Amino acid sequence: MRMLVAIAILAASAAQAARPMKTFHLYVNDGEWETADGEKTYIVGYVRYNEKFEEAPAGAPLPPPTIPAPEIRVRVGDEVHVFLHNAGHHHTAQGSAFTNVTHTIHFHGMDLVQAFDGVPGVPAAGLPERVLAGVSVGDSYEYKFVAENEGTYEYHCHIDSSTHILLGMYGAFIVEGKKPKTIYGHKYDREYTLFFSEMDSAHNEAIRTRGDYDMLKWKTDYFMLNGRIFSDNLKNPLSTIADPKSVIKAKDGETVLLRLLGIAYSHVFAFHPHAYHMKVVGMDGRKLDSPYWKDTIPVASGERYDVLVPVIKKHNTVCLSCGFGNGISIAHDHNLGGMVSTGKYPRGPLTIFAIE
Q1: SS3 of 7, please?
Q2: Which helix (H) or strand (E) holds 161?
Q3: How confident is the model over 218-257, as pLDDT tens digits?
Q4: What is the rounded CA–CA span in Å between residue 164 and residue 293?
Q5: Of 163, 244, 261, residue with least CA distance to 206
Q6: Quick check: helix, strand or coil at residue 6?
Q7: Based on the domain organization, do 134 and 197 belong to the same domain?
Q8: Distance CA 191, CA 206 (A)
Q9: Is the previous residue joined to 68 through a cis bond, with omega within 30 degrees of 0?
Q10: Quick one: 107 and 253 in the same domain?
Q11: Which of 164, 180, 196 is the last residue of a domain?
Q12: Does residue 230 sit in the same domain as residue 307?
């Protein structure tokens, strides 16, 4: 019996040693975020010291936060280690109750044990007492797990979630399949991550100055795609259509993978491209046994969709407009309240398909 146990332990150790290990260091930082209408808003987010997510040298300056936070990518079977460092809040007003709050990371959609699930206040074997309330300013914590299922996931803070998440503490967590340019066995040529979210700038300013806000007074004034809104000034560098991560470029005949994600207080985004139907092949990090076609997809907070868009060759169809050159078509939130940021239309999560 002892020999069998020893063999099992050795086999498990060998399997663990064979797994690729991916390490990421994320830091909590705060700052300002500017939108295409020229307004600047206080935000808090996760940042990386460099492109490799390496640990920052002592005293090294950190980059400002972005919306969304940096995308994390691993492959199926990777052993993932994510270190959360709470670097503090340097742009809060003196006396704000938010200055010394704690933070966590919840890997939304990943089936993890409590010690690495990022929810504070729930005792778990082996979970340090200091982490039960979240990671304090100046402290750090290591999350570790194996990425078992390919698909699209999110990560976000799970302390006072409405406030911390909507301040900007969210990002995409992507688990790629073993074969490049495939998802759930389906092939694609290009891919884009489209993260829909909303923001109440009055809420953010109240957190910066006081540290509290009556969430029943929440009123969204920005509906965003990858942290941006559309601007009718087509040369505006902060517009969605000036963002290479948001403009969907492809060539005639290619297939595009879109990863659709949502974080919201109450809004449900309805993503609708004008020129194409979308084949839904996965939802919430799982392959669909029976893919289906949609031209409008509702994306609620926490939901993720993996959809394939075949860019059809128009010359193979009845097309009266094919002589008008390269194709540009829009895609937008068809829940039309989301197209009205700061009360003005069409300042919302509008982007374009730009087909060569």
Answers
A1: helix
A2: helix 161-166
A3: 999 999 999 999 998 989 999 999 999 999 999 988 999 9
A4: 35
A5: 163
A6: helix
A7: no
A8: 37
A9: yes
A10: no
A11: 180
A12: yes
Where is average pLDDT lowest: 48-62, 118-132, 185-199?
Answer: 118-132
Of 125, 149, 180, which residue sits at a domain end? 180
Residues 175 and 206 in one domain: no
Could you tell me the CATH number of the domain that includes residue 240?
2.60.40.420
Domain limits for position 171: 2-180
What are the tokens at 151?
A: 């698909």
DSSP calls for 23-82: EEEEEEEEEEEE-TTS-EEEEEEEE-SSTT-PPPPTTPPPPPP-SSEEEEEEETT-EEEE
Contact 239, 330 (CB under 8 A): no
Assign 3-class secondary structure to 247-275: CEEECCCCEEEEEEEEECCCCCEEEEECC
**33 and 154 part of one domain:** yes
The residues, any chain, with a CB within 8 Å of residue 67's CB and separated by 6 or more, are 33, 43, 45, 168, 197, 199, 224, 226, 227
Q: In total, how many domains does the chain have?
A: 2
Closest CA to 167 of 211, 230, 121, 108: 211
Per-residue pLDDT of 62-114, as tens digits, reads 999 999 999 999 999 999 999 999 999 999 999 999 999 999 999 999 999 88
SS3 content of the chain, % helix, strand, coil (to 5): 15, 40, 45
Same structural domain, 42 and 80: yes
Task: Specify the 3-state DSSP secondary structure of 221.
Answer: coil
Residues 151 and 261 in one domain: no
Q: How far apart are CA 285 and CA 153, in angstroms?
A: 6
Nearest to 193 by CA among 154, 251, 236: 154
Same domain? For 319 and 215 the reply is yes
Phi first, then psi, for residue 106 (nearest 5°) are -105, 125
Phi, psi values for residue 113, rounded to 5°: -70, 160
CA distance 25 to 175: 17
